[in-house]
Each structure stands twice: as C-alpha cells, then as structure tokens.
Amino acid sequence: MNQVIELLKSHRSIRKFTTQPIEQDTIDELVRAGQAAATSSFLQACTVIQVQDAAKRGRLAACAGNQAYIAEAPTFLVFCADMKRHQLACDMHQAQMQSGFTEQFITATADAALFAQNVAVAAESLGLGIVYIGGLRNQIAEVAELLELPELVYPVFGMCLGYPDQDPETKPRLPLSVVLKQDRYDDSGDTAVIARYDEEVREYYRSRTGASKVMSWSEQISGMLIKEARPHMLAFLQRCGFLKK
C-alpha cells in the first residue's frame, strides 16, 4: 500500500543487537515521536526513563526473568503510566485532585502504550530493532523502587532498542476475520479459522527453532491462561494510588 503500512506489517521482535550505540539525539527524537501519539483528554500521562546505569540494567534484567538483552541492548527505556504530574498541575491551581479512579488507570496505561508504539515505529523506520519487556511486571515493586517511582506512577513495560544482529521471520498474526467484525461481535466461525491458523503457527515455530518447538497458537494461549497472571499486580497498583474506585 505504502512504505508506512509495509513497515508496520514487517515488525519483528529483536533480541540480539550489535554493539553500535544509538546517539542520544536519536533517542531524543524517538521520544518526541512518542509524545506526538494520541493522548486521552490531553493528559499526556506517560513518562519514559532511559536506564543507562549498568548495575540497574542488570537488576532490571533479573527482575524480568533474567532476560540478558535488557543488560546488553544499546538502549533500554521504561515506559511509565504517570498521573503524578497531574497532581502537580492541580497543586499549581490549589485544586483538590480526585485520584484513584479506574478510568484514570485505563487512560494513563493507554497513553503509555500509544506513546511506546510511536517510539517503536519511529525506531524501526530508522533501521533499529526493538523488543517490549513486559517481564518487568514480574517483580514490579522492586522495579519501582529501583527507578524511584513516586505514588501515581507505575512501570507498564520496558523496551530494548538497538541495531539488529539477527533477522527473524515475521510472526504470523490471526486471520483478519477473527479480529475484524461488522456491526456486532460474532465469533461463530472463529474456532475453525483459528484451527487453520494453528497449523501456520506450528510451521512458523518449526522453521524458526529447527523443530525444537512445535506449538500452535491456541495451545500456547491455553497453556498460559490456565496459570495465575501476576496476581500481585492489583495490590501493587492500589498501593501506587490506582484502581481504588
């Protein structure tokens, strides 16, 4: 269709990077691109922390399940949902901020995700590779302490950036009919479509891993969702001042 659409459709997670550094001017420009993302009610509720300290990187890698590329990538960013500056804005006008609402959590988290995706696309347009790091939420309280995050701020995920030192295939996505519905939600034909998609995913893993992993999408998801999903998150977020009402 055009170069932007082709770029978006060619996204791959990159976990091996060359040692070539990314200039700080480039990082600054990527963050400006992130700032240009849509933001609910002009809240601009995202703060980015660029972690350069090697010791902190090592601890973050450990918190995320020992993902070595967090420590090895030329650049590592943490995207935080941030309602703290809004408290400052209210204080500037002697206004009593009403915080803790679930809607505020949703809008701040969405802002951070939109911001980060702009950064990802901008980075890939420059030939950089990225991988999101949701594993920071494995030990989110330690991450928050390490980054000295105040109340009303929480780390949504991290992102490794660098020049790729691998060339993986693009991972096949669900068929369009499963995700695009007309006028109403209708999943009556989705089971059969997903079964066919499962075969495509099995072949992707077989090719990518030399047959050491052969798993379908539905097998992977069902195996994941029979387990608890970071049950510590609710209490942590409530301690941060989110999801109280």
Low-confidence stretches: none
First and last CA, distance: 45 Å
Q: Strand-and-helix sequence, N→C?
A: HHEHHEHHEHEHHHH
CATH superfamily caption of the largest domain: NADH Oxidase
**Helix percentage range:** 40-55%
Give the tally of β-strands.
4
Describe the fold and architecture.
The chain has helices at 3-9, 24-35, 54-63, 69-72, 84-92, 102-125, 140-146, 176-179, 190-209, 217-225, 233-239; strands spanning 46-50, 75-82, 129-133, 153-162. The protein folds into two domains: 3-168 and 228-239, NADH Oxidase (3-Layer(aba) Sandwich), CATH 3.40.109; 176-214, no CATH class. Helix content is 46%, strand content 11%. The chain has a four-stranded antiparallel β-sheet, sandwiched between helices. 24% of the residues are buried. The protein is built from eleven helices and four strands; from the N terminus they run H-H-E-H-H-E-H-H-E-H-E-H-H-H-H. It starts with a helix and ends in a 6-residue tail after the last helix. Helix 2 (24-35) crosses helix 6. With 245 residues, it is α+β, with helices and mostly antiparallel strands. The model has no long low-confidence stretch (mean pLDDT 97).
What labels would you give this structure?
four-stranded antiparallel β-sheet, 2 domains, 245 residues, NADH Oxidase, single chain, alpha+beta
Which secondary structure elements does this structure contain, and how are they paired or packed?
Elements: H1 3-9, H2 24-35, E1 46-50, H3 54-63, H4 69-72, E2 75-82, H5 84-92, H6 102-125, E3 129-133, H7 140-146, E4 153-162, H8 176-179, H9 190-209, H10 217-225, H11 233-239
Antiparallel strand pairs: 1-2, 2-4, 3-4
Helix pairs in contact: 2-6, 3-7
